Amino acid sequence: MQLTARVLFVITLVLASSFGARSARADDEDDKAQKPAPAAPAAPAAAAAPTKAADAEAPSAPSVVDVKAGSEVAMYGDSDHVYVFTPSIYGTVESPTAGWSLNGHYLVDVVSAASVDIVSTASPRWIELRHAGGADVTYKPGNTGIGVSGSTSIEPDYTSYAASGSLMQDFDDRNLSVRLTFGGGHDTIGRHDTPFSVFSRTLDHYVGSLSLSNTLNRSTVLTLIGDVVLERGDQSKPYRYVPMFTASDATRIVPGAPIGYVNQHRLPTRVLEQLPLQRDRGAFTLRVAHRLETATIRLDERVYADSWQMVASTTDLRWLLDASRRFTYGPHARFHAQKAVSFWQIAYVSSGPGDIPALRTGDRELGPLWSATFGPGAKWGIGPAGDPFQWTLGTDIEATWTGFLNDLYLRNRLAGLGLVSLEGTF
Predict the structure, then answer these.
(1) Fewer CB atoms inside 10 Å of the end CB: C or N, the chain?
(2) Hey, is 260 helix, strand or coil?
């Protein structure tokens, strides 16, 4: 199953939103952990508002085509014995004067895991491969533009396809930009080494996003983003089994109870996870990017709620300092906290096979938790003297500490993420 929000909580390559048009799949506690997300692009060196004179001259300028290509290699590991290696490539071809652009990306996940959830079911360590890619086209010759995008993700037991369309409009001499996006996708969930014709489930999701970006002055840009995602289908994990307890034994289960203790008190029956068949999500993000004389600061605050009664808040801060003409560096800090879904239980009570809770899960990412991330990042301009950032070498190193407040097996998890990138402009 797809890796989801365990460390950075989402690959966000589509829609540039707080949770975007992701394939909306929950993670497999029995076999998967969070896939590290590629680093977000740094904030622009300046937030200068275009002038009317510049706008008037643009149509008469000759058409210029810019080409940008890059590659990233990300490596993730955590104290729960999950390791991910992710090489990726991406590229952009655009004409700033004609107003069109074409972007594409492709990545491979190589995952090796022997997490506590795998050990608790007496399953062996496994290795799996995932391929994911996407492309988008934008045409915006003036104040009005359109865009379309598509993405896919393929694993041995999961396939996902998504597409979206966008409308863009600039106002106030392009100081205010509005983008409206609608999209959807279809996922097929299966079992490893089992054809979809023998066993499969489907999940459909529909996405709407509205963003407003306002250039307040030559140094500050304010962005507001609202997202809605509607999910329909059974996203329960076919590998995840949930232990059951008698009413008396359930009172003996405490957060972080080890595997042996749980097995000693649980009922012999293990039942598969069962989640609600629909989920409606909503999020609002406030983003401020400000350019100082020798630094750029970007602050994001995101609030989230859904129909499963999960509520969450995420604060993200990036600070990039100009050490020289060729070198920028700075810290990245992030804090996330969430309330559990309404049907969350550390110990589900059952009196026997005929008395199983209708909704049940062992996914600790649906429970109450908090996480803190911190680490440095840097970019080197290794191009020629006239244009140092024609070629850019980048690196990010981050550590995330997650506290699970009411879950079996784990009370906390330490994870590390390292990323190296190379990008060239032609």
Answers:
(1) C
(2) helix
Round to whole Å and give the CA distance between 235 and 262: 26
φ and ψ at 318, to 5 degrees?
-125, 135
Residue 129: burial class (beta carbons within 10 Å; 0-12, 13-18, 19+)? exposed
Of 294, 172, 289, the residue nearest 221 (C-alpha): 289
Global confidence as pTM: 0.83
Residues 131-180: tens digit of each pLDDT:
999 999 999 999 999 999 999 999 999 999 999 999 999 999 999 999 99
Q: The tokens of 233 are what? A: 């289908």
pLDDT in the model for residue 63 = 60
Instruction: Please write the tens of the pLDDT for every residue from 303-318.
Output: 999 999 999 999 999 9
Reference 243, options 50, 56, 8, 30; nearest CA is 30
The pLDDT assigned to 274 comes to: 97
Q: What is the pLDDT of residue 80?
A: 94
pLDDT average, residue stretch 268-274: 91
388 pLDDT exceeds 70?
A: yes
Cβ atoms of residues 204 and 231 within 8 Å: yes
Q: Average of pLDDT values for 219-224? A: 97
Amino acid letter, residue 47: A
Residue whose structure tokens are 């993670």:
27
pLDDT digits (tens, 9 = 90+) for 329-357: 999 999 999 999 999 999 999 998 889 99
According to DSSP H, which parts of 45-90 are helical? 52-57
Both structure tokens of 417: 């993420």
How many degrees, rounded to 5, is the angle at CA 232 between CA 230 and CA 233?
Answer: 150
List 319's β-bridge partners, or say none: 297
- The domains of the chain, with CATH numbers, are 52-66+93-102+132-425 (2.40.160)
Residue 362 sits at the vertex; the CA angle it makes with 356 and 366, to the nearest 5 degrees, is: 115
- Counting every residue written for the chain, the total comes to 426
Contact criterion met (CB below 8 Å) for 202 and 187: yes
